[in-house]
Amino acid sequence: MNNNKMIFGVLITVVGLVFSAFSFIYAALNPWDYNGITGLLGSFLGTHMLIPFIIATIVMCIGIMICFWEAYRKYE
Asked: Three-class SS string for 9-31?
């Protein structure tokens, strides 16, 4: 069994988690009113962290999918 792909999936998941957590915390700690949009969405838009948050979340999901694929794949 080759664990290199599993380790790769875990690393991608951790990187996505760290960047999405950073984006979320940065937006939450900087309240913003973006053209009348307040709250967390206004903070994401005002600090320009919405796109990095979405990308980091997608990367994290890809890492989780790689881990599940490697964990439950049938070897011949």
From this structure: HHHHHHHHHHHHHHHHHHHHHCC
Q: Which residue's entry shows tokens 């790769």?
A: 8
Contact 6, 73 (CB under 8 A): no
Q: Which helix (DSSP H) or strand (DSSP E) does residue 51 occupy?
A: helix 50-72
39 within 8 A of 27, measured Cβ to Cβ: no
pLDDT digit string, tens, across residues 11-69: 999 999 999 999 999 999 988 888 888 899 999 999 999 999 999 999 999 999 999 99
Count of alpha carbons within 13 Å of 63, Cβ hemisphere only? 18
Domain segments of the chain as ranges: 4-66
